[in-house]
Structure formats: C-alpha cells, structure tokens
Design brief:
about 325 residues; alpha/beta; TIM Barrel; eight-stranded parallel sheet; globular; binds adenine; binds zinc ion
C-alpha cells in the first residue's frame, strides 16, 4: 500500500518565494502586463531552461512580471496554498528585496506588508505559518548585498527572522559578503548561505568561517570531505538539503546517487526542502516519497526531519512551541 506522504506534517526551511511561482501564475501576470515571456516555457507550459546558469536567467525573467506588492500578495497565497496541500505547517521562505522594488527600503516595506497580509490569511485558512529569510543574490555582488542587508536590518522582527545568500555560487567569494552577514547578525537574524551546491567543501568552510552561519543551503558537496562531514556533525550545522532540486539541476544523476542518506547516517543534521518546486517538478510530498523509495526512509526519519527543522528554524520560541504542539498531536 502506498503511503499518503501529504498527510505527514512538515517544516520547510528552504523555499524561494519567486522560485515557487506556478508557471500559470507568471503567464497570467505576463499577459496582463503585455510582456512576452513565451521563451521561458516549454510546450507543456512548464519552465524551460538548460542548466543552472540558464535556470537563474529564466528565474529572473519570470520575476520581471512581479512588479507590485499586490502581485507578491497573490503569489504568497498561491505558494502557501500549494505548501499546505503537501502537509507543510511551517515555511521559511527566501524573500528578495532585489525583486521587490530593487532594494529600495521604502518599497521593500510595502512589498513585505503585502506578503505578511497574505501570510496571515494563509495561516488562518490553511494552517501554514510563514516566516521570511531575506536573501541577497551572490551574482549581484557585495555592494548590492549591503543594500539588501540594510533592508534586513530595518525590517528584522517577528516576521523577518533570517538572512541569507543565494544565486550563482561560482560568482565571487563568500568572504566578500562578511559585512552584510555581520550586519544581519547584529540585527538578531538567523544566518544561512547557499554553499556546496556547485562548489566543493572549501565553499562550506568559507560560509562557516567568514559568514558564521548556523545553516547551509544545500551543502551536499560536504560529502567529498570526510573531515568536514565530521565537523558539521560535531557542530550541529544544519543542511537545508533539496534532493529534487539537485537531481533536476544535475548536481547528482539520480536520487539514489544523492548523498543525503550518507550525511544523515554520519550524524549531520539534515532537513529537506523543495527550493523552487515548479522549476524542478517537485513538491514536499514528492520529496518524502522519493526518500522513502530510494533509501527506505520511514516515519522515524520523517519525524527526525521535522524535529531538526523545528530546532533550526529562525522563528521565535512561542512559534516553535505552537509548532511542536502541532507535531505532537499529528
Ligand atoms: N536561487 C533559487 N534557487 C537557487 C539554487 N538552487 N541555487 C542558488 N540560487 C538559487
Ligand atoms: Zn535555494
């Protein structure tokens, strides 16, 4: 008998809000605004890209039709509806002021308010809690990141609880972003960095040394260095692993070849997320089903994922208590 993976309560720590936009949503926005985005979709209507750098191009092209706070309100509702339908009770989404007013603080406040309004509706109607992790974009450079860190500093609070960096891992060096991460840390934000998705173990070491993050986005290439794996396990560094994303983008040829089970067995704190679900034809139920089929993961593994994500989440203690109660009653 096949399991109902959607029924398992889940916490997702690594989801890009714009990257979760259903293609139909982006097409509707493009049509309304008279923008021709036909080149970024295939004949089935799915996003079309060829490799990671092209994925980033298509992603940014889709973002060009998200131009108002109302667009982000509607996007947030659409995304959380999907998440809730797959059993997600808590989602920490990467929010990018770069795509919400270009980093202007006043504009960002308006976009954030719209996202928060949608999040309150989703919480009341669908039982999914959203928190925001502001992310700078690596290939936009360290100077732009400082502007984004200022948005993070100024809006840190109950809703904005984290700061991170995404984008092209092959662009520049993480050490160049130290100033922005120091600023975010001083504002009380939790810290995470995309590292070890494309570059090897030295990139995780740079994230730990220079940015002093408690979580790493992807981080799967740690597997190439047993000493680093031990270090991650000893320090309790949490990996936001996105297996479906890694397979879709070609980081690993198949789920069976993915190192998540080896990392877990070595004592590394792993969590599971979707990254950009429609781009990778995935969702949280599919991720859990895949792990069950590829590695024989069962309820105890899924319970551990939720507990690890709960303790690594950047939200406040009261929110964690509420989520813990929901996990217990589930
Ligand atoms: N932004 C959205 N998805 C990403 C990924 N998988 N890696 C880096 N940046 C991203
Ligand atoms: Zn990501």
């Amino acid at each position: 008998m096949s399991r109902d993976f959607a029924a398992i309560p889940k916490l997702e720590l690594h989801l890009h809000l714009e990257g979760a936009a259903p293609p139909a949503f982006i097409r509707a926005q493009a049509k309304r605004k008279g923008v021709d985005l036909s080149g970024i979709f295939d004949e089935t209507g799915a996003y079309k890209y060829d490799g990671f750098v092209d994925f980033l191009r298509v992603y940014e092209a889709a973002c060009t039709v998200l131009t108002t706070p109302q667009d982000f309100h509607d996007l947030t509702l659409a995304v959380l509806e999907q998440s809730a339908s797959h059993g997600v009770i808590y989602s920490e989404a990467f929010l990018s002021p770069d795509f919400c007013g270009g980093g202007d603080l006043g504009a960002w406040r308006d976009y954030m308010a719209a996202i928060q309004t949608a999040a309150a509706t989703a919480e009341a109607q669908m039982g999914v809690t959203l928190r925001g992790c502001i992310t700078c974009i690596r290939h936009f450079g360290p100077e732009k990141a400082r502007v984004i860190a200022r948005c993070a500093q100024e809006t840190a609070g109950d809703f904005i609880t984290g700061f991170g960096i995404a984008g092209d891992e092959n662009a520049g060096e993480l050490a160049d972003f130290t100033y922005s991460f120091d600023a975010a840390r001083e504002a009380g934000l939790g810290l995470t960095a995309h590292a070890g998705e494309w570059r090897g173990p030295s990139e995780l070491r740079a994230a730990l040394k220079h940015l002093r993050v408690s979580r790493i986005g992807h981080g799967v290439r740690a597997i190439d260095d047993p000493l680093l794996v031990d270090h991650l396990a000893e320090t309790g560094t949490v990996l936001e692993v996105c297996p479906g994303s890694n397979v879709a983008l070609g980081v690993y040829p198949s789920l069976r070849a993915h190192p998540i089970e080896q990392l877990r067995a070595a004592g590394v704190a792993v969590t599971v997320s979707t990254d950009d679900p429609p781009f990778f034809h995935t969702d949280m139920s599919a991720e859990y089903a895949g792990l069950s089929h590829a590695f024989g993961w069962e309820q105890e593994h899924f319970t551990a994922l939720a507990q690890t994500a709960l303790s690594a989440a950047f939200c406040d203690a009261a929110t964690k208590h509420r989520l813990s109660d929901r996990l217990e009653t589930a």
